[in-house]
Amino acid sequence: MNPRKVVIRFREKGGSAAEWGYKAAKKLESKGIAAVVESSAVGRGQSAACDADLVVVVGGDGTLLRLIDLCGGSPPPVLGFAAESLGYLLPHSVETLEVVLEKAMAGECEVRRVRLGEYSSQAITGYFLNEVGLWAPRGKLIEFTMYVGGFFYKARSDGVIVSTSAGSTAHALSYGASIIVNFDEPILEAVFPGALSPLVKPLIAYNKSMEILLSQNSETAHLIVDGRYVADLPPGSEVKVSPSQKNLELVTVESYAVDLARKLYLRLIDMGRWQGSLNVSR
């Protein structure tokens, strides 16, 4: 790799991520590469990340999710380091930061591609990495019809989560989603938290859109994308979710990357909540 400009984004809330971010900048500058360090709280109009040749992410998956939104689904390639977090999509432990940077800048790296999703509802459009959620107000239900290449379900539930393959191991997993490991495929998975009918099961679609039409009798639904509130949708609203042609490119030094199967195991047993380091055996 020969990036001329690198932006390092670190998790905003405490911990050692900021310290590691400045270490990364020092390492890059010693090689004559311009480096900018910024918190993940730096938003549109202020961040330099979207115009960089490479973004180094230090923190957890939330730091990565904010980058997708910040850059409108077209972020630069990302070199990710998990710091005091499991960081399922961040392949390297932060303790290996200096050696991984050295090898990546020398071109000893590969690129993993993660397929994004896209959504639209009236004038609202955007991209997502993990999931789009429609949620009823507290104590209420939404009523909707789901279409996947035609009519599929009509149901009432607490909400609907439509995830990408990568998102199948995130919020959707806690509601019974199947784990999909082909991150580069145009796959969507829908789960229906609190569905009143036992016949309403999770569904998976390959290279197809999912359309959710709120009935006229439904409660207003909160549209939540990658954990971020987007809008309230009134009865009669329609949301279309599709696999995107866009991919997130994750720069990976395979000899120092934590195996995804190992990370998934840690996620399933919830070790990521208290394990401060990813220096784990394979």
From TrEMBL:
<keyword id="KW-0808">Transferase</keyword>
<keyword id="KW-0521">NADP</keyword>
<keyword id="KW-0520">NAD</keyword>
<dbReference type="InterPro" id="IPR002504">
    <property type="entry name" value="NADK"/>
</dbReference>
<dbReference type="GO" id="GO:0003951">
    <property type="term" value="F:NAD+ kinase activity"/>
</dbReference>
<dbReference type="InterPro" id="IPR017438">
    <property type="entry name" value="ATP-NAD_kinase_N"/>
</dbReference>
<dbReference type="InterPro" id="IPR017437">
    <property type="entry name" value="ATP-NAD_kinase_PpnK-typ_C"/>
</dbReference>
<dbReference type="Pfam" id="PF01513">
    <property type="entry name" value="NAD_kinase"/>
</dbReference>
<protein>
    <submittedName>
        <fullName>NAD(+)/NADH kinase</fullName>
    </submittedName>
</protein>
<dbReference type="GO" id="GO:0019674">
    <property type="term" value="P:NAD+ metabolic process"/>
</dbReference>
<dbReference type="GO" id="GO:0006741">
    <property type="term" value="P:NADP+ biosynthetic process"/>
</dbReference>
<dbReference type="Pfam" id="PF20143">
    <property type="entry name" value="NAD_kinase_C"/>
</dbReference>
<keyword id="KW-0418">Kinase</keyword>
<dbReference type="InterPro" id="IPR016064">
    <property type="entry name" value="NAD/diacylglycerol_kinase_sf"/>
</dbReference>
